[in-house]
Amino acid sequence: MKNLSKFIFLLLSISAFAQEKLSLENCYILVEKNYPLAKQTDLLAKQNELDVAVIKTEKFPQLDFLAQATYQSDVTQIPIAIPNSTIEPPNKDQYKTTVSVNQLIYAGGLIDASAEVKLASLKTKQKQVEVSLYQLKKQINQLYFSILLQQEKKALLTSKKELLEAKLKEVKAGVKYGVLLSSSNSVLEAELLKIEQQFTEIEFNKTSLFETLSHLIGAEISNTTALKNPEFLSKLTSEIKRPELDLFKLKKEQIETSEQLNSLQNVPKIMGFVIGGYGNPGLNMLDNSFQTFYMTGVKLNWTIFDWKATKKQSESLLINKDIITTEEEIFKLNTNIELNQQQAEINKITSLIESDNSIIKLRNKIVKSAESQLKNGVITASAYITELTNLYEAQNNLNTHKIQLLLAKATYKVTQGN
């Protein structure tokens, strides 16, 4: 109920407020609720309910109706004459209708074992759906952090634009009083137009990314929605907690229930039955007329020898269990390799961020010096723009590396299963 309330709140907030912030965790929750594959969980449960109900019907009385008319080439006759008695042979054309009721009395737990196999199969299939939905998280990560990167680029570009606009006013004043060349105006104005082009490109990119993310999580998101930078407070560990591990476990449990069912295939089955009918002849073959009849009793069915089919099936199930164990080992190995690669990527980006900070400090000093030189007419506006662009690129690299670090950590956590 708590998750449902959270889900409804997310939907209302995203659709109603364009400026509402959206978090990475919210996207994870929405894709698990809205992605078409998620519907299969309930569908599988309903299907299993019907399958188990069908299996349970074997415990109920089974009612059969039979009607037949036959003609045979010969009939049973008494080859001796009995004095003072005439025994007519049955007719060659015979008619019979019967209604039979069969009730299973004992099957050694076979029916319940069959129901357990279906339940184990349901759990495995539902976990497979969960695994498939979980794998969408990496796709969400790529979209989410791509949008974050566009947002950071826009914010940085906005700062650059504001700085250039302020500088343009100073330059115009310098041109007016003959301190600076008139061409300085044009250089700054051209750079501002270039920034507008970059704004347009960012908006188109954001719109495309938002639309894709919106389709994936099944909720309308405005391209003005601000995405939150996720915080990774907990330390990254190498312990694997992926749903695939639970899937391997459930597959093994499914095999174990199948083994139990297989061991019960040849147990004796006891059934009670009642047969009632009407036909010519009836049970008395010497009475050549239509008559009613009935029969009741108990029957035992026991497969004593099945050519080792049950044993071979058990061996096949054990091999399948070993195959799943091998698949689990391969999954853990590949996941650990992937985690090591991602940890190396995190370390690399962390190092690059340290270098970015050092570069930006130096670039800031250079731009401040260039500002003073431009103001005094020592350098041209083009030279100033070059140094400002270098600073902007350094800041852009820093922001890009920060987003890449967040993405790397998010990918690490998804790969780990945390």
Q: Give the quaternary arrangement of the chains.
A: single chain
How many domains comprise the coordinates? 1
Radius of gyration: 40 Å
> Mind telling me the CATH class?
Mainly Alpha
Shape, principal axes of CA atoms: rod-shaped
Number of strands: 4
How much helicity do the residues have? Answer: 55-70%
Largest sheet data: 4 strands, antiparallel
Structural class: alpha+beta
Strand content: 5-15%
The chain-level mean pLDDT equals 89
Number of discrete helical segments: 9
CATH superfamily, please? Outer membrane efflux proteins (OEP)
Low-confidence stretches: 1-19
Give an overview in words.
This protein has 418 residues and is of the alpha+beta class. It has one domain (2-34, 107-267, 302-416): Outer membrane efflux proteins (OEP). Helix content is 64%, strand content 11%. The chain has helices at 2-16, 24-34, 39-56, 110-134, 136-176, 183-217, 243-263, 309-375, 381-416, and strands spanning 62-71, 93-106, 269-280, 291-301. The chain has a 4-stranded antiparallel sheet, with no helix packed on it. α8 packs antiparallel against α9 (381-416). One of its GO terms (molecular function) is efflux transmembrane transporter activity.
Summarize this entry quickly.
By secondary structure, this protein is α+β, with helices and mostly antiparallel strands. It is 64% helix and 11% strand.
What layout of secondary structure does this protein have?
Elements: H1 2-16, H2 24-34, H3 39-56, E1 62-71, E2 93-106, H4 110-134, H5 136-176, H6 183-217, H7 243-263, E3 269-280, E4 291-301, H8 309-375, H9 381-416
Subcellular location: Cell outer membrane
Keywords: Cell outer membrane, Membrane, Signal, Transmembrane, Transmembrane beta strand
Main location: membrane
